[in-house]
Amino acid sequence: MRSCCRPLERCFGRRGGDGLLWHVDLKPHASGDFSIAVVQANSSLEDQSQVFTSPSTTYVGVYDGHGGPEASRFINNHLFPHLHKLASENGGLSANVIKKAFDATEEEFLHLVKRSWPAQPQIASVGSCCLVGAISNDMLYVANLGDSRAVLGRKVSDGRMNPVVAAERLSTDHNVAVEEVRKEVEALHPDDAHIVVSCRGVWRIKGIIQVSRSIGDIYLKKPEFNRDPLFQQFGFPVPLKRAVMTAEPSIQIRKLKPQDLFLIFASDGLWEQLSDEAAVEIVFKNPRAGIAKRLVRAALQEAAKKREMRYDDIKRIEKGIRRHFHDDITVIVMYLDHHQGSPNGRVKEHSTVDCTTSPVDIFSLNADEAEDPLHTVS
């Protein structure tokens, strides 16, 4: 697990023609193969992601930061070690183990905020969505805070020779743009008529943030931070009676079935451009190698189309400015072969422990690679 804390040590990704795109074409995990791709739009990459593989367990994490990269990077370094330790101590994974790991990560980030507060008060306004998947003993666990999303590609029978795939959403979007979530937040604050307000056509909690659950965003969870004059110089002086956000994850557990083909874990940057069904169809109809990169490019082509541009034009836009055209996008595709087996009828063996983590900053990584004549660039 220690390798998860060193984001660049075990990354074997490559950049493509887009200088802000990083990807891993295909690597093995205990139940099949996986592919990752990340494209940067913000001045600092706020998306972080990782895949931990061992012979018995696979962990997947997508962390979509906001207000800065500090929270998503913190989760990248702390959540999986907590999961691994707690699962070992409690005889395996469970909903309770996952919740405790989320709680421990939130608590540690709160301590970091308190230590950093005098010199960096704005860190109280930094947060991150947190989407985690875990596969162990043919059981799938999906835990989520915020609006990153996990979608399953499932084979269905339609009476014809050609198989058909259906998209099944496995996570809950904790975003007040969703009416059900908006009503949930309002029900928790019956004495606050302005807990959720529409700002220029976008619903936001206290007019500030769309997601209702996260790691971090301490100023919206601990009113004492919000009231501090030091923070009010940098943040939003919104009077709070109590916390208006939570770090309580939604957790779904299911036994994997023979018709379950693959999983897509992605930050909302992908889902802003592609529907669940469109993403699943792309994965189903295309080769495995580079499939995550293919999904990212499909999303970028949709973003370009909305602006009446070409994707080649977007590729030329530098980080920071590019955020006006699309968000940071992270995609992880996990193929599930444990039921189908390998060509000789045996399940693919994966006997090593590995952690693949996306870069902290893609632009800097690619700039370094360009100066290294020994580095192979695709």
UniProtKB/TrEMBL annotation:
Enzyme class, first EC level, given as a word: hydrolase
Catalytic reaction(s) noted: O-phospho-L-seryl-[protein] + H2O = L-seryl-[protein] + phosphate; O-phospho-L-threonyl-[protein] + H2O = L-threonyl-[protein] + phosphate
DNA damage among keywords: no
Keywords per UniProt: Hydrolase, Magnesium, Manganese, Metal-binding, Protein phosphatase
Record-listed E.C. numbers: 3.1.3.16
Any one GO MF annotation of this record: metal ion binding
Cofactor: Mg(2+); Mn(2+)
Name of one Pfam family that matches: PP2C
Superkingdom classification of source: Eukaryota
All copies of domain PPM-type phosphatase, residue ranges: 33-336
Entry similarity comment: Belongs to the PP2C family.
Protein name (database record): protein-serine/threonine phosphatase
High-level lineage: Eukaryota, Viridiplantae, Streptophyta, Embryophyta, Tracheophyta
